């Protein structure tokens, strides 16, 4: 027994020493080495590592900022822009606290990308201008050129093509000065594309040719300028020239081995052959394209298998990452409690068994929460698709495309939310807007709605259980506003009340009738109350449904404790 205690003592000393050494190693990294340390080919593993270090393993403001910056960059690349904004906002606050101008500029650039994706163009433009001013102050020419290209993209999205061209030309001038040929080629291609959109084909072709020549000079396998030239020739009805350019582009993509680009080129060659009435070539291009489709499908299946393998590897590595998290914690009192720890060895075995039982109970609760969060009504999905199909029959492709895109985003959000315990309020409201807009299409704008958010409620920082309001919004539409003869109104009010956030769902429908659809409503309310009980904060006692007045509406009130 004494030997066992002695070996345990040596093991604990070794753990403490190893922990200190690893901490010194991390603290000694340069910024670039630190980013490489936390990064991984598997984005889930990277985020796990970042969250672990942010909570326990990094003691400087700057390094914590780098963690949030890298996490925001990863989320942005995955098009999770609302989550990316939350992480990048935290990074920006930390860099501003230490007055690190370079990283303030870099963070603003990433924030502008997320806001541009979310159509917040004015906010995105302001953030780019902040970054541009800093890059110029620091004489960072590469950063300045990148900011100018981003401004050009914003103005392009605003249909201000002249301003967009001006910014890209300014960026290209800096890239010429830096002899940054690869980036300059992309800028020339972008300028040509903007000229193409305003039907100035002469200038478009000129810049496409410049980009093409730069790619040749640096032996870069990039066919975009050639393909763009081919498309302009197609628009000018010069089918021979267009075909020649596409065939040149095809050779480049065959060397590069990019199957998707080869398929796109064959699609365009097929279109040219049909226009030229050359059906022999058309048949050949169809075969080539179909062959590439098979290769692409085979490649995608291989990638899916790799993804499954990566997921399996991630599970096996989680224990190692958790251990790494522990290693990064500075436990300065471990030696002081060694004697007490050894004397309580028997008690720890009992406690370990107890903790195992608690962990299993917690996992059971989490699984129950996930089941409760799966709420998308299949009848709603069928009816929404039917409504979208009707717009297609009405021969309104823009309207059909808009609603189909919104509906697809809603379904994707529902799938993403099922796996999460909490999401940002901003994300939940975005999904709710997509849901209400789809219902408006379905019921042909039978009702209007508004979402009122008090100024002291920061939707980008507050986290709530996902899809919390959706069942009551659905009830308001289906049971309150749908039967109403005249046009209805749905209001969602969100405000602060002491340490709570108050949510109100109000409709001016036919009123709350307890005898109608009682089973469906009570089931939805029961699920909602179970979700609140699982949070174990007594919030289920703060929930109420009120009739506003006889036959003229219903109000649902809920309050969440966010501390």
TrEMBL record:
SUPFAM superfamilies, sorted: ATPase domain of HSP90 chaperone/DNA topoisomerase II/histidine kinase (SSF55874), TPR-like (SSF48452)
Gene Ontology MF, one: kinase activity
UniProt TPR repeat ranges: 185-218
Keyword set, alphabetical order: Kinase, Membrane, TPR repeat, Transferase, Transmembrane, Transmembrane helix
InterPro entries linked to this entry: Bact_2-comp_sensor_kinase, HATPase_C_sf, Sig_transdc_His_kin_internal, TPR-like_helical_dom_sf, TPR_rpt
Keyword Kinase: yes
Record organism: Aureibaculum flavum
The keyword Signal is assigned to this record: no
Protein name: Histidine kinase
Superkingdom of source: Bacteria
Spans traversing the lipid bilayer: 333-350
Residues covered by the Signal transduction histidine kinase internal region domain: 368-447
């Amino acid at each position: 027994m004494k030997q066992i205690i002695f070996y345990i003592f040596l093991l604990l000393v070794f753990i403490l020493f190893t922990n200190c050494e690893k901490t010194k190693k991390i603290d000694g990294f340069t910024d670039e080495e630190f980013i490489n340390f936390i990064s991984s080919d598997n984005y889930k593993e990277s985020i796990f590592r970042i969250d672990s270090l942010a909570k326990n393993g990094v003691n400087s403001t700057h390094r914590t900022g780098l963690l949030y910056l890298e996490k925001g960059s990863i989320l942005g690349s995955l098009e999770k822009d609302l989550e990316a904004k939350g992480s990048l906002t935290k990074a920006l606050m930390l860099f501003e606290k230490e007055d690190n101008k370079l990283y303030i500029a870099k963070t603003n650039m990433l924030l502008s990308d997320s806001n541009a994706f979310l159509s917040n163009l004015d906010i995105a433009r302001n953030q780019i201008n902040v970054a541009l001013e800093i890059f110029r102050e620091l004489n960072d020419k590469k950063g300045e050129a990148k900011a100018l290209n981003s401004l050009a993209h914003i103005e392009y999205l605003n249909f201000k093509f002249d301003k967009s061209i001006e910014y890209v030309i300014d960026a290209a001038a800096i890239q010429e000065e830096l002899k940054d040929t690869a980036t300059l080629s992309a800028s020339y291609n972008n300028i040509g594309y903007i000229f193409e959109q305003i039907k100035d084909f002469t200038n478009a072709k000129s810049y496409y040719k410049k980009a093409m020549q730069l790619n040749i000079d640096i032996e870069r396998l990039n066919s975009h300028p050639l393909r763009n030239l081919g498309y302009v020739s197609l628009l000018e009805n010069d089918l021979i020239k267009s075909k020649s350019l596409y065939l040149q582009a095809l050779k480049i993509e065959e060397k590069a081995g990019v199957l998707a680009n080869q398929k796109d080129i064959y699609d365009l060659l097929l279109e040219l052959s049909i226009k030229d009435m050359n059906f022999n070539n058309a048949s050949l291009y169809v075969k080539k394209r179909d062959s590439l489709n098979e290769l692409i499908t085979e490649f995608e299946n291989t990638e899916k298998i790799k993804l499954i393998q990566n997921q399996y590897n991630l599970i096996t590595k989680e224990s190692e990452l958790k251990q790494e998290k522990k290693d990064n914690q500075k436990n300065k009192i471990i030696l002081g409690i060694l004697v007490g720890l050894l004397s309580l060895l028997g008690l720890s075995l009992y406690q370990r068994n107890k903790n195992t039982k608690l962990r299993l109970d917690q996992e059971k609760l989490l699984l129950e929460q996930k089941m409760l969060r799966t709420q998308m009504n299949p009848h709603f999905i069928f009816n929404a698709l039917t409504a979208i199909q009707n717009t297609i029959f009405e021969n309104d492709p823009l309207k059909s495309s808009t609603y189909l895109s919104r509906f697809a985003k809603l379904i994707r959000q529902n799938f993403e939310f099922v796996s999460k315990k909490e999401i940002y309020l901003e994300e939940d409201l975005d999904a709710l807007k997509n849901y209400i807009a789809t219902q408006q299409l379905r019921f042909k704008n039978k009702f209007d709605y508004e979402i009122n958010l008090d100024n002291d409620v920061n939707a980008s920082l507050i986290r709530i259980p996902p899809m919390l309001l959706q069942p009551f919004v659905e009830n308001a539409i289906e049971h309150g506003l749908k039967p109403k003869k005249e046009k209805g109104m749905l209001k969602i009010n969100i405000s602060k009340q002491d340490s709570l956030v108050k949510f109100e769902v109000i409709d001016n429908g036919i009123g709350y009738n307890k005898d109608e659809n009682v089973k469906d409503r009570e089931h939805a309310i029961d699920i909602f109350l179970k979700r609140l009980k699982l949070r174990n904060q007594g919030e289920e006692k703060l929930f109420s449904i009120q009739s506003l007045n006889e036959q003229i509406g219903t109000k649902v009130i809920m309050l969440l404790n966010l501390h």
